[in-house]
Structures
1.
Amino acid sequence: MIIKKFQANTEKEAMVLAKEEMGKDAIVMNIKTIAPKGIFKLFRKPLVEITAAVDENVTYKNERPKEETTLPPRRNLNPDIIYEEDEPFEQSKEKAEASSAIEEKLNNLQNLLEKQLNAKETIEVKKPKAPEPNKNIACIQLIYNQLVSNDVDEVYANQIMNEIDGSLKKDSSIDMILASVYQKLVLKLGQPKTIELSNDRPKFIFFIGPTGVGKTTTIAKIASKYKMEHHAKIAFLTADTYRIAAVEQLRTYANILGLPIEVIYTEDDMKQAMDMYADYDIVFVDTAGRSHRNREQRDDLENLLNSVAEDKREIYLVLSATTKYRDLIKMTGVYSDIADYNLIFTKLDETDTVGNIFNIRMLTNAPLSYVTIGQNVPDDIIKIDSQSIAKKLLRGH
Ligand SMILES: Nc1nc2c(ncn2[C@@H]2O[C@H](COP(=O)(O)OP(=O)(O)OP(=O)(O)O)[C@@H](O)[C@H]2O)c(=O)[nH]1
Ligand SMILES: [Mg+2]
């Protein structure tokens, strides 16, 4: 992993610098505001400093020798990185609670580790000839347990711990190990993919996924934000004609938001809608919740998606964070056979653990996009934040 810091006037500018130097795969690990110092500080604006990272196996754009680009480990693995961030997807009242929970957990982790190490030292006194235990192993085991208790698949937890183990110095501090696991997690979660407005319009955004996960509600949340915040020209289509209530549900949101809505029964209807909405920015397409086990429903969905050219469409697979991992594996497998998609996880407010988000990201390699955190339209949705998820994966309950 290569880590560098970039300072600029805004987060966006700093990210541009990072991508210019480290390539498009650079991921933000941490963002902090640096207050100006010195006698002119009143006249200077604060700077934004981002810490960006790329994996070693991703080609580094400016091919400099590795030693130059890798910061010394002490700075790389600054444990403060874990705590100084806000948790954007916590409601503000929960923020303080959340970060004190992290600290408490980390303290516990440290206490546990010390106990474990002391126990080992006692044994060592009795058996002086025993080989010196590698203290990293005890710590790695604790963090591994922590990930697994947050529902991270043991296979992925193992993979991360092996990768970390190989890159650690003997007897690294617990903070260093924790920080490097955190950085790995953030890198693996990747940069979120969200809906972007462009001149190449209209964009057809399909929401697919199992029944009752929150597809229609999520469309209403996103559409509302793009209309209010970006003044985008938006239309709704629904191909969910299996239930009258389903059309009415989307129609209600369309009326509230003042957006046109069309119901799609056939591929011809889809073609007509494409002409009708040719000068719109975004056309959200709601689909019926499908059982991933039903072959015919699967084929219908595939035909619907293929009625729009790949460069004109984006597909968001909506999954509930409360679904069993085993079922999520099956569902994503079925949808992967149909098309490439981005991932939205709903109902995070109904579960304590975010391990499944990590697992499904690892399994499908599909970009993460949004998470939803309640039933309120439009507020209960946020762009996925890899840093926040990584912290949750390392935190106790
Ligand atoms: N707790 C919670 N409930 C949610 C969330 N998102 C949606 N819901 C609720 O989940 C239920 C189903 O939401 P819909 O939007 O109708 O789900 P859908 O995927 O369109 O359902 P079908 O069209 O029947 O497949 C509703 O009661 C929503 O209010 C969320 O983030 N948290
Ligand atoms: Mg629906």
2.
Amino acid sequence: MKLYDLELSGNCYKIRLFLNLIQQPVELVQVNVLKGEQKTPEFTAINPRAQIPALQDGDFGLGDSHAILVYLAEKFARDDWYPTEPETRARIQFWLSISANEMARGLADARLVKLFGAGLDYERATQTAATSLTLLEHHLQNHNWLVGDGPTIADLAVFPYVALAGDAHIDLNPYPAVRAWITRIYDLPNFLSMPGQIAAEQTV
Ligand SMILES: N[C@@H](CCC(=O)N[C@@H](CS)C(=O)NCC(=O)O)C(=O)O
């Protein structure tokens, strides 16, 4: 199995983290998006959206971090990370949508501006980030995990850009329940870190 990857991509990190947590080996193939390597015909045959991450598993190719999380969880870890009850699945999908929308347009866009100089509206991104962090904070004041009693792919989808808030120059101090949740994820067996994450001592 190959993961088309970039170390500094939070979307790619979702997949690297999950595969490490479930101890599934993968071959990492670096894609330099600044050089446009995601636009080659070979790559768009795997992901027509011309974005990383993308996965190649035998004959099966797939793009999108959320689709890949669902695929890998179904295949390797359904009972633990993607339980089958309709209510649980639907709640997980709710958070995958938050990840693909509010987290992407908020925390991830703000990080793109501050870390890579992207020409995006930083003010708007920070407002979206504040709204989604407040939503997350309220949820986590009464729950240890986003869905159910243990970690699921919902946590892994939402977590990366939250833990990378420092790169986006966004302070997590007003969100103590979010910081406690980050600590719980850091403490998972076989956790894998990525550069730029909030330091463990800042989470308590
Ligand atoms: N919704 C997609 C977003 C993927 C995405 O934005 N990938 C970025 C890197 S983090 C990318 O490939 N950017 C290069 C481009 O769009 O040309 C996902 O969750 O995988």
3.
Amino acid sequence: MKIWLIGAYGIVSTTAMAGAKAIEKGIVEKTGLVTALEPFKQIDAMIPFNFEFGGHEIRSLPNAFVALQEHWEQNRHFEFQILNAVRTDLERVVAKKGTALNCGSGIRELGKIETLEDEGLSLREIVERIENDLKEFADKETVVVNVASTEPIPKFSEKYHGSLEGFEEMLDKDAKDFATASMLYAYSALKLKLPYANFTPSVGSSIPALKELAREKNVPHAGNDGKTGETLVKTTLAPMFAYRNLEVVGWMSYNILGDYDGKVLSAKDNRESKIVSKDKVLEKALGYSPFSITEIEFFPSLFDNKTAFDFIHFKGFLGKLMKFYFIWDAIDAIVASPLVLDIARLLLLARKKEIGGVVKELAFFFKSPMDCDIVNTHEQFLMLKKWFDQLAKA
Ligand SMILES: NC(=O)c1ccc[n+]([C@@H]2O[C@H](COP(=O)([O-])OP(=O)(O)OC[C@H]3O[C@@H](n4cnc5c(N)ncnc54)[C@H](O)[C@@H]3O)[C@@H](O)[C@H]2O)c1
């Protein structure tokens, strides 16, 4: 299958490419891939583990290997032997120029960028360029995944985002203030009937207009924001307090990270989308809202080593207050990139089985699952297994 990555030179994208190629060559195991677990084994017969990559970018680098090497020098996130082994595969991946429309002030932290809007293109022309790039690359087994930097929360416009007709009008009128890059990529993918996943907190395909487009074209899509670190632990642990009738009275989550992702998130407007995405889960997992603090700060020397410090204050029998602390210390791209491959394979399976619209059964992979209030990781996993079983039998 083919995967088109928006943000192709980022650390999650390049690690996903390197990991996929290293697994194909048999030099590493499939640890970290959910689809390699026993309940999903049948997927290998339906969607073989074999990938071709392409994508859009706004940083102009010669190819994905140069980007991977840059990330590797800062993070050493896998053995040197793997870097060498995947070199020629990643050198072949040369991203197309993308759009960064309304991507916020944080985008400046990426250094020199080149975008389609810099060429003075209208919204219609930007979309046309994106669609042409996709058409040139895609076949019937292609999935688009957004792994670009997090955008700020856009101002919602009922007129332009509320219906597909309104969205088309926004494009016709070149109403650039209302469009964001992630919407334009999602629109282009869905219009071409390519399954689309949003691994970021950006708006992507989650506005009513694009959900309508996905339903109309009968193409599957899923998001938002990969659930990989602190939120994964939070939504796995919070149910434990609920099951034992222990009242969570306060939960503090303090995240620090470096790298480009951390730099972009150090801009207030970009950070806000991430905090909203992380913050909503507690209420959904517990059924009430404890006092909560969620912070994300840029910490340059950590690079991609994201560290989360959590403090939970909870009440037990006889009203006694007790404390629970945890520290999550992981390489963000190592926990995120296998999920990109999992999500792409599962969305392609959905497409093959003619499923269209939001695939809420993929909630397991996301912090803010679209159209799904289940945030409990255990329940999400069971839901995913059941869905997969039904699909595999169909
Ligand atoms: N790593 C994780 O565990 C994790 C978890 C959940 C979500 N995410 C999200 O995934 C995204 C990627 O994370 P990362 O660590 O790879 O970040 P990164 O900064 O390394 O990569 C982002 C890439 O996207 C490019 N880019 C930015 N805006 C673009 C645009 N409009 N069009 C095309 N390319 C664009 C950047 O130049 C960069 O190469 C972020 O939004 C992050 O919040 C990551």
4.
Amino acid sequence: MLSNTATRYGAAARFFHWSIALLILADIALGLIGENTPRTADTAARLQTLYSVHKTIGVVVLGLAVLRFVWAFTQPKPVPVHPERKAETVLAEAIHWMLYGAILIMPLSGWVMHSAETGFAPILWPFGQNLPFVPKSEDVAHMAGAVHGLSAWVIYLTVALHILGALKHAVIEKDGVLSRMLRGTEAGVAGGVGGESHASALPVGLAAVLWLAVVVFPFALPVKDHAETAAVTQMEQVELASELPTWTVEQGNLTITVTQMGAPVEGSFANWNVAIAYDEDTGTGEVTVTIDTTSLSLGTVTQQAQGPEFFNTEAYSTAIFTGDISRIDGASHEAVGTLTLIGKTVPVTLSFDLTLEGARATMSGTTTLDRREFEMGAGYEDEGTVGFGVEVTTELTAARQDVESDPS
Ligand code: HEM
Ligand code: HEM
């Protein structure tokens, strides 16, 4: 029999209960294993598979949960087996509602986090990866991640209480509560004391308030302050000992794009500065770019990127490019010099366009570096996890120092 009655769970309710229970327990295990696996070259591929499976199971749970809700609304709710134990009944039902909330909030928060992030492990299905209305944003991913992590604790607690309760009924009381869910046998008295077959308001209300608190709590956390446009003034300005006119950078962006698991992941440095001397008559000059590598943010993989295998920011917190500028043709220029990064100095040529409008210059350029030249990510020997090429894009505007810059 598919449908419930006042004293038994039908096959559909039991199917939903056990399929979702199994998938949720598996996903909790995967989530915990993932959280406790160190992020290194050796574990990267395994972690990707793990999170892809985790996310795929999660969205399947979400689909089943929606069907379960729709089904449950059309069904009578089996009566409590011990309606005379008021507190225990309210607790058991509140936990059921918490669990109902969990099977929606857990996968939804996970999916919002996944949608807001770039790169990393995909959901293993052909129906697209991103939810509508969720922007690619580190802040959104951070919030959703906080809801996901906090909800995980709610799940640990409620599932533990729920299983303990089921065991108490099965082992100590032997009252048919577990076999009512396992085999669909009958238990309880239809129409008995408190035997109404509708959800009572108190447990639903309790669960709703608790879930609301969990979902709202992360909004009370301080939001990380990202300096999206480079805070070029934060670092001490390097002075060039040059005869040529010097230029002060007004604003700029220094972004990098790496290929992770075949997908581009873009990030930026919040703290860097540029010292430029450039003579527009000859098209020659000098440039020094100093980058605080601890200010790198690179989506989900910021910590890995700053870790010992890549930027190793604990040992090396600064990268420096110095080069001589020469005009190639019109706006097209190049700076030929060296980049010192994680203790290695490598020749680098930065090609860029420079346009001048009076005393103001706009510069934009892109260069692709090869991480192997810096022995960066040496454990990642092929491009399966992290590509060799790192695209560096610089965009900035600068004002010639000897002339008052035009305030308009
Ligand atoms: C049945 C639903 C789900 C359950 C029970 C679940 C459970 C968990 C648990 C226990 C963790 C580890 C705890 C933590 O990192 O704070 C975790 C982490 C994670 N989950 Fe889920 N999850 C579910 C669905 C999803 C879905 C649908 C996605 C994405 C589409 C997702 C993405 C993630 C990610 C990316 C992490 C790592 C978070 C981090 O390291 O910051 N999860 N999940
Ligand atoms: C091994 C683990 C589990 C056992 C032994 C178990 C046992 C039970 C039993 C015996 C009932 C019936 C209670 C009654 O008749 O009053 C029940 C109901 C329920 N369980 Fe579980 N459960 C388990 C895991 C889970 C998990 C992981 C969830 C999370 C979604 C869950 C969600 C529910 C819900 C929402 C109900 C209310 C009945 C319904 O509307 O389907 N259970 N469970």
